[in-house]
């Protein structure tokens, strides 16, 4: 079955302030959608709301993955259903090694009675780390603790590769990556592109999209998707910035503003 992810009229608030003001987005398996937009327009909020972050209250709308109601699911159920988020600022967890964390995440996704064997897990993790040109020592380091910015981002991609999600959300995966790491991470993403997997890639820069060609590019302002197009839209934004979009749409302040 090919993946179908659908967001309809999604509204979300934080501490009573409405940030997302009605998001509509449909992502099919095999597609890569990029979301761009100025700072503070709701991009990370969308990612957090989709993953079920407790701070972000969903006040309206629906989200379905292959017909299943995502908003009804607890956070761990969303991961099990195949949602994955590489966060803009990955958290550090002291006392839990990267390998322990990944193995429990994989097993949670596979379900009881279907756990991965230790040998198979280690082999897979080693293989993927090699593809990402990560030092094997990162297997036994505490999760993200003391990782450099770029190391954290590479580690997020490692998680994605091992978890084989159905809908991948990457929030500024390119921030902090050096030139070689950007290419390595993009290759990792491209290798994961398939008919039963969709991608939502939040980025500020066309540069990433030179490596990962999106099918659709969306612009977010004021907590809404205000414009959509193909890869050429990202190129125009890179060259000209956002003023022309604001002018075209009569937007003065692009941030989510005060509720
Ligand atoms: N936990 C929170 N508490 C208070 N305000 C919040 C919280 N989370 C988000 N906001 C506000 O919501 C707005 C949107 O934030 P969000 O992180 O979604 O922006 P963004 O589009 O991802 O920006 P950037 O490009 O800088 O990452 C911002 O004004 C932000 O301050
Ligand atoms: Mg953000």
UniProtKB/TrEMBL annotation:
Family: Belongs to the ABC transporter superfamily. Ycf16 family.
Taxonomic source organism: Cohnella lupini
The keyword Isomerase belongs to this UniProt entry's keyword annotation: no
Boundaries of every ABC transporter domain copy: 5-247
PROSITE patterns: ABC_TRANSPORTER_1 (PS00211), ABC_TRANSPORTER_2 (PS50893)
Lineage: Bacteria, Bacillati, Bacillota, Bacilli, Bacillales
Gene3D superfamilies hit by this protein: P-loop containing nucleotide triphosphate hydrolases
GO MF, one annotated term: ATP binding
Pfam families for the chain: ABC_tran (PF00005)
Keywords from the named record: ATP-binding, Nucleotide-binding
Top-level taxon of the source organism: Bacteria
Name the record gives this protein: Fe-S cluster assembly ATP-binding protein
